[in-house]
């Protein structure tokens, strides 16, 4: 399906309605898209980014439908294969084409795609490329989310092609975002999974995009934004230090003791005025957990002791939270044990990159007894107190 963005500018990429998992970890319940943008100058023709190789037929069919017989430049904003993977196929189909990208991206693509030195034109930050009435300007936006990522700005039409930056996992026939609630959620999922660890650099890159004063932001996943403020404001909110009055409780329970602790904690937190999100790690969707982590204040990991340590599902959750580096402020570890083990030490080691306050862990022997519920209540009070200190609770 071809989607016109402006005069002589088309999204000729692929829509992936069936994709349910990305990076083999994060669910994509709304599918996704790999946008590739064709820009027709009076002298030259450029294609900005390509598609996941298995969807290249959609891209080739769109180019054929538009009667494209020649591509002069394949601009590559990012070397990851969902955008670059079809470049070798395009170079074969359009032998005169050159890959236009930065030096880092070129090096990655020589490794990842076995492209050759002579396939490239290497550009530097701020360089421009004249297509005849359409000028491309290259703006480096590193670490959104690889070191080589860049934005291509179409000067005359004021369109910023940002690749992954501002993208959403959403398959849609719309050229521009229309269902704002849906796109907000899917863009947040996208941010949570791959952008969140780079919050600091994202702030600098947002500024660079704002300075371009784009009329349209056109990422390479999901719809484009004819109201760039919508997605820029969302990103600013996500990267800010501001968190919500929420505790995320990730738990696993084998025989119900840890679950009883979690149920009590949830009730007590509710009484204390803290909003709670609870996810059973056995059935949880990692994409939704990543979204939760974007702005919760407190993360609680609740696990039984198993094999002398935390349940492996709890280790997985801790490792993921640690890798995503959310702006969580407080972490608590709780659970039930039978006769000992290294549950706390192992979880703490897996959470080592988070700059958080770690609450005194709450481990209870066996099924919680009356006095244990008092300890859980104190645990909840402590969390509420932290939320008050942090100013997230009214
Ligand atoms: Fe959509 Fe980093 O690839």
Write a structural description.
The chain has 394 residues and is α/β, with parallel strands linked by helices. The chain has two domains: 3-239, Metallo-beta-lactamase, Chain A, CATH 3.60.15.10; 244-387, Flavodoxin domain (Rossmann fold, 3-Layer(aba) Sandwich), CATH 3.40.50. It is 35% helix and 25% strand. It has twelve helices and 24 strands. The chain has helices spanning 56-65, 81-84, 87-93, 103-112, 180-195, 199-211, 228-239, 257-272, 286-293, 312-324, 343-350, 370-390, and strands at 3-6, 9-11, 14-16, 21-22, 26-27, 32-34, 37-40, 45-48, 73-75, 98-101, 120-122, 128-130, 135-140, 150-154, 159-163, 216-219, 244-251, 275-280, 296-302, 305-306, 309-310, 330-337, 357-358, 362-365. The strands form six sheets. The protein has a seven-stranded mixed sheet with strand order 1-2-7-8-9-10-11. Strands 17, 18, 19, 22, 23 and 24 form a six-stranded parallel sheet that branches. The chain has a five-stranded mixed sheet with strand order 12-13-14-15-16. The chain is elongated. The structure holds MU-OXO-diiron (FEO). The site of MU-OXO-diiron (FEO) has 7 residues, from helix 2.
